[in-house]
Amino acid sequence: MMINTMTPPEIPSLRKAHLEFKNLKLSSKRPMDDRDLHGFLQGEELIETSINLRLEAVSGFTRAGMLALSQLAGDLRSRSGLGARSVSRQSLAKALAQLAIASWAERPTGPLTDRELAEFDEKISAWFASQDLVRTHYIPCTVNAWPTEAFAIGPVHFYAFNEIPVEELGLKREEVWPVGEGAMSSLAEIYIGDLLRIAEMRNAGTIAEVSIPGREKTQSNLTADIAGLKNEHVAMLHAIDMLSQLSNDHARWFHLPAPTRELVAELERHERAESTLLRNLFYSKP
Asked: What's the chain look like in SS3?
C-alpha cells in the first residue's frame, strides 16, 4: 500500500486545497454553543474542520478545498499498492484534510514552500504505510437453527458464541466469562463487551472471524461485512437443506416448526443487514 511521492500533476491539487484552507480565531462570545459554532462555520463556508481549544481557533477547508483534496485522493488511491479497494476516495480525502490541518494550523500565511510539500509528501506515505496491516473483525451471526461446532468457509472462521478465541485478543477466558455471578473484567469489556451485547440482542449464537489485510478502517469494515454476509448465504443454504431432509421424514415433522421459525427470523435479519450494507456502499462516494 506504499506511495512513493506525489507526481508533478498531483501537486497543483494540494496547492489549490491550501488556497481554500482557513485558520480562524473563534468568536469571542463565551460560552459558544452548538448553534453558534454551526453558524460560525457556515458563515466561513467551512465543511471539514478541526477546533484547537488551546489556540481558541478553528482550521479547515471550504467545499472547493475538499474538492481539490478529493481530486488528489483519486489520483493517490489509484497508485496505492492494492488499488482502489484499499481506501475509498471520500475516506482518503478526509484523511488528507486532517493531515493538512495538523500541518498548517499554526503556519504563517503564504504559499506552500518546496520543503513543506516534501514534508506533506512524507506524511502521505506514512499514512498509507500505517494502513498496511491486517484488521481482524468479529461479526455476530446466526448461521444455523441448531448449535454448531467451529468451522470455516474459505477465509472466514465461525465459532460458537462462548468459543471465541479470546486468547488471541490477549484475554483469559475467565475474564470474559467469569465463574458464578461475577462481571467480565474492564479489559474484556473494552475489547469484546459491545460485540457480546450485540450478539445477545440478535440472538446470534455464532461469531464469524475474518481478517482483512491492507485496507483503511472503513473499507476494511465494509469488506468484512460483505464476507460475513456471503458466508451467511452458504450457511443458510445448509440450514435449508437440513430442513428439507426433515420434511422428507414424516416421523420427524414435529421437529420442523422451531428451526423453521428461527430460519425465517434469520432471513429477515439478514435482509436488513444487506440493506444497511447497500446504503453504506452507495452513501460513501467512490
From this structure: CCCCCCCCCCHHHHHHHHHCEEEEECCCCCCCCHHHHHHHHHHCCEEEEEEECCCCEEEEEEHHHHHHHHHHHHHHHHCCCCHHHHCCHHHHHHHHHHHHHHHHCCCCCCCCCHHHHHHHHHHHHHHHHHHCCEEEEEEEECCCCCCCCCEEECCEEEEEHHHCCHHHHCCCHHHHCCCCCCCCCHHHHHHHHHHHHHHHHCCCCEEEEEEEECCCHHHHHHHHHHHHHHHHHHHHHHHHHHHHHHHCCHHHHHHCHHHHHHHHHHHHHHHHHHHHHHHHHHHCCC
